Amino acid sequence: PVSDRTHKFEAHILQRTPLEECKHTFSAIMGGSMSNAGGIGSSPRVLCLSGHASNKEVSELQAMVLGFEDTHRLELDYLDGPFEVSTTTDPTLKGQLDGPFHAWGDPAGGHHDRDSLQAGVDHLLAHVAKHGPYDGIYGFSNGALIATLATAMVEGDGYKSLEKYKGILPWKFVILACGSCLDNEAFHPGGPSGGPKLSTPSLHLIGAKDSIRWRSDKLKATYEDPDSYLLEYAGHSLPMQAMEDSDLKAAVALFFGKLKG
User: Fold this and answer.
1) Torsion angle defined by CA atoms of residues 240, 151, 131 and 138, in that order, rounded to the nearest 10 degrees
2) In angstroms, rounded to a whole number, what is the distance separating the alpha carbons of residues 216 and 226?
3) 37: β partners
4) What is the pLDDT tens value at each position of the chain, 261 positions in all?
């Protein structure tokens, strides 16, 4: 059943694009098992990262709208950023959701650069080292950027030089909703000075009406072979109507089907 709290946030979640070619695969994929699929079991374990000035409650609502547990049978864990902020910057949440809220970078900085976000990446890796392994990571907005920066670090084995992170098992996929990106493309994975594009399988959920959609597109371009789904009705959010979006469900199911190999 949908809680009363959920109805408060009908504006805060997702949207769609025609995807007729994968509709016919949805029933077959969801009717099967993902056990022994590239190391992904029947209930893949996924860590969900909140966005900027957000918190776990919002991530839980997003996971519900995306059907992560009920439809796609994921086992979920949640993580907020390491910095606490007094209020959310999302006008749809102000006055409706109690804090505290959290950010991935120094709140006073407000910059999307590697230095200001490194504490957030370290926070994520420390959580994975302690509570992992995870099959995948879901991130919204800045959480998607943190997931990408951490993925680049893990793919490059850079974390292995840090004693406290030794033994981390890399995750096998990322799902990134309304993703953000670094301000300086030269420092971005896949950018001119950022090394090769990331090979980790990725699914990008992009709001067609998002005022900063260009950041999502830029983040998507850092991956070697990204999958994506355009939410025609969404801005920088995952609206409640996404729960009725059969194309979206099919796109997520198809992504997991590809991971099965």
Assistant:
1) 10
2) 12
3) 40
4) 444 444 344 434 333 333 443 433 333 333 333 333 355 777 899 999 999 989 999 999 999 999 999 999 999 999 999 999 887 766 566 566 777 889 999 876 666 788 889 999 999 999 999 999 999 999 999 999 999 999 998 998 777 777 778 778 899 999 999 999 988 755 455 544 556 899 999 999 999 999 999 999 999 999 999 999 999 999 999 999 999 999 999 999 999 999 976
Token code pair at residue 23: 């509709």
How many CA atoms are closer than 13 Å to the CA of 16, on its beta-carbon side? Answer: 18
| DSSP track, 143-194 | HHHHHHHHHHHHHTTGGGGSGGGTTPPPPSEEEEES----S-GGGSTTSTTS
Beta bridge partners of 46: 76, 136
Task: Please state the pTM of the whole predicted model.
Answer: 0.82
Name, in order, each residue with C-beta under 8 angstroms of 167's C-beta and a sequence gap of 6 or more: 129
The answer to whether 201 and 258 have CB atoms below 8 angstroms apart is yes
Q: Which residue has the tokens 């900027």?
A: 52
Q: Which helix (H) or strand (E) holds 22?
A: helix 20-31
**CA distances for 172 relative to 103, 185, 192, 212, angstroms:** 25, 25, 25, 27
